[in-house]
Design brief:
Elements lengths: L2 H18 L11 H9 L5 E6 L5 H14 L16 E6 L2 H13 L16 E7 L8 E7 L5 E8 L14 E5 L5 H14 L2 E6 L7 H7 L5 E6 L9 H10 L5 H6 L14 H4 E2 L9 E7 L6 E9 L4 E10 L4 H8 L8 E2 L15 H7 L28 H13 L2 E4 L3 H9 L2 E2 L2 E2 L5 H11 L9 H8 L10
Parallel strand pairs: 1-7, 1-8, 2-5, 2-6, 6-7, 9-14, 10-13, 12-14
Antiparallel strand pairs: 3-4, 4-5, 10-11, 11-12, 15-16
Helix pairs in contact: 3-4
Amino acid sequence: MTLEEQQLLLSLQQEFAHSLAGTKIRTYTPYPWQREFHDAGKTCQERMLMAANRVGKTMSAAAEVSYHMTGDYPDDWGGHRCDKPVLVWTGSPTNETSRDIVQKELLGGLGEDLGTGWIPRGKIVGKPSTRQAGVKNVVESFQVRHASGGLSTCNLKTYEMGWEKWQGTAPDIVWLDEEAADYKIFSECQTRILTSRGRLMVTFTPLRGETELVLYFIKGLPGTFLKGATWDDAPHLDEKAKAEHAARYRAHEVDARTKGIPMLGEGMVFAVDDREITIDFFEVPRHWARIKGCDFGLDHPAAGVDCAWDRDTDIFYLLDCYKKDQELAPYHAAWLTKANKWVPVSWPHDGLNREKDGGRVLKERYRELGVNMLGKSARYPRNPGEASDKGGAQPVEPIITEVQERMKSGRFKVFKTCTPFFEEKRSYHRQNGRVSTARDDVLKALFYALMMKRYATTRTTNSLRAEQAPARSIASMR
């Protein structure tokens, strides 16, 4: 290509980029995991997107920042809204990464390229201010016209400034792209949004393994939200490219870079590759036994699983799963009864507690709502010589061991659509020798179902009657 041809091509590319200025945000169509991350902002002040490289985590946060700064939300926006101008802080490790990643995502560039990022050119007011940092074209702050008429301001900060530079004002939105080595920066941001009742987002790939920040979000405290995303969650990445890039990474980096999985605590509980247990959807044979499991979520998200058991091969299948926070019994019961109402549902001993408002016992409330609850709480089979099986709280190690053995022996399979299960599996770990109980809602529902698989049933005449009269428990049919 001649020099003239190269210059012409560059000119055409610039013209095309300029023609798109202000339209990029209109092209944003979130993947399901991105939409879930955005929606969580409505109720959660602190969110983390701990994801693989190249899946779109930075793009997700940049698009959301654009919505907040302009006040121009899409009609189907379900997340946090700002009805007045906002103060935004962004955080990056260095001046170079702030310019090359966050600044580029938000603004697109400077000069004629300004407005080719997620914030439309027509909304940017004046010229962004830059700072003398020994690096060219590093934006320090810029302003955007908000739909209410005022001006939103964005200050682009870096971690190399030190935590002291993160004190002072009360921003409405804080976005930390990649993790700060000094946890004090994160804690300062927490303090800042307390005053403004703002929102804090963290987007990063966990290359530093188990850190204080990772463990904080894994605890699942009220008001926090942790979302993962792997290469398999990003359809824009083709299989050939994924295989080529994965082969280039060092062995200890592969899970972090391709799945967003840090090494947690003393190690993952289920140290089996997802690919070993993942299968595509298929129609479940009618003669396989079926059972569901639920975790009520008294002070954490409620969860449910739908399972099948092939008695001939002793393979246990997880077909579907769900979890949801901040909802009442009718919402959760609707998932458990949305298909195959005749399938018995295993439940934990806290189902004998009453609803939060002091109403009916939980298991009875679910039964009234049409859920085919088993007649007794989840428990292990009785031991030889015992008169009956023992109810109440059950030790978790025996069922963990069974799941581990099934995973390793090929006797546990999961439909690839069960994203909440895989997210919890990847973060399920031991801390000081004990299994962490954070982010284990779907896992618990699975444990209860597997623990009670002896009560799994096929779609017989009795089960058809249960579907027609779902308020009856499986126990009442025996």
